[in-house]
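re the bet — no i am not wrong, look at it urself. input seq straight from the record:
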Amino acid sequence: MQPNWIWRKEMADAIADQVVKLPFTSPFTNSTQPSSVLSKKIADMAPGDLNNVFFTTGGSTAVDTALRTMQYFNNRRGQPEKKIIIAREKGYHGSTYLAHSVTGKERDKSHFDFATNLVHFLPDVNPYIRPDG
């Protein structure tokens, strides 16, 4: 029987090859050839005029970036007061500060700081635990 590392050599080689092609860049200021090629493929498959692609490191940073983009957009439109985010009680949106702030899970709120002035929570839609009325 071969050691486990032999089974993973092909994957390790592919990862090493990508490291050479994908140096760190900020998605706000730079791009790389592989990410540009992948962006084009994704944009071509997207329906209608959905042709902008923005890469993040994960779900939390995707939510955070979407919320920050909305705030930036409204600032640029001259509507800086348009910052309120509507979220659901018991919803989970991530672990970054802003994504966590719009998370409605009580267990996640008990010991962490979060922004309280940016979000309005709608009641949970679970019919078994919804409030009266």
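see?? The two ends are 65 Å apart (CA to CA). told u. also Helices lie at 4-7, 9-21, 33-45, 59-76, 97-101, 106-109. so pay up
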